[in-house]
């Protein structure tokens, strides 16, 4: 009996799971197709045939595992951010801290990964915060000249760096955001 093709949904899930596990365990520099092939019970040649680079394989694995993110409208910027961050904190079946570190490391070393990450992964997270910022500016909660990009980067960075802490979402919203916006 032959192997299930890589484009079958269950095989893709298996390969993508192996990709994210390997990235979290060894980082980007030591990540390679041999490690993924062994873990996913696939040939290295079949991986390269479908994904010409590790950056593209990692990006596809991340895109396939993006959580469904809400676009809340809770009436205030702080509560919108609280709901968005809570959705990011939902338990995931992967080592998210290890994956984020691998992505950061790889993005410094590989321009292709940095571009793919920004285009496909970062945007999925920043879009929701951008909508919340735009709504807050329209309601007068945030100044019109506020640099949304810096605020969004600060929120994401703080969340990632402190994601292992208990109650990180509430501490960001109540301890950082509310005092800043009054």
Question: Mind explaining what this structure looks like?
Answer:
Helix 1 packs antiparallel against helix 2, helix 5 (77-88) packs antiparallel against helix 9 and helix 6 (96-109) packs across helix 7. The chain folds into two domains: 9-63, Orthogonal Bundle (Arc Repressor Mutant, subunit A); 67-181, Tetracycline Repressor, domain 2 (Orthogonal Bundle). It starts with 8 loop residues before the first helix and ends with a helix. The model has no long low-confidence stretch (mean pLDDT 91). The protein contains nine helices and no strands. It has 182 residues and is mainly α. Residues 32-51 bind DNA. Pfam families: TetR_C_11, TetR_N. Keywords: DNA-binding, Transcription, Transcription regulation. GO terms for molecular function: DNA-binding transcription factor activity; transcription cis-regulatory region binding. Residues 9-69 form the HTH tetR-type domain.
């Amino acid at each position: 009996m032959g192997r299930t093709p890589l484009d079958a949904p269950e095989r893709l899930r298996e390969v993508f799971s192996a990709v994210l596990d390997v990235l979290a365990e060894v980082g980007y520099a030591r990540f390679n197709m041999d490690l993924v092939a062994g873990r996913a019970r696939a040939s290295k040649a079949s991986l390269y045939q479908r994904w010409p680079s590790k950056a593209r394989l990692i990006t596809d694995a991340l895109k396939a595992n993006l959580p469904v993110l809400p676009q809340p409208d809770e009436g205030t910027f702080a509560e919108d951010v609280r709901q968005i961050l809570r959705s990011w904190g939902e338990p995931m079946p992967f080592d998210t801290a290890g994956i984020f570190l691998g992505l950061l490391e790889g993005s410094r070393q590989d321009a292709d990964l940095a571009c793919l990450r920004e285009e496909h992964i970062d945007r999925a997270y920043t879009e929701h915060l951008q909508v919340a910022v735009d709504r807050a500016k329209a309601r007068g909660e945030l100044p019109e000249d506020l640099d949304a990009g810096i605020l969004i980067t600060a929120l994401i960075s703080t969340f990632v760096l402190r994601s292992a802490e208990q109650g990180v979402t509430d501490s960001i919203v109540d301890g950082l955001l509310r005092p800043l916006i009054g």
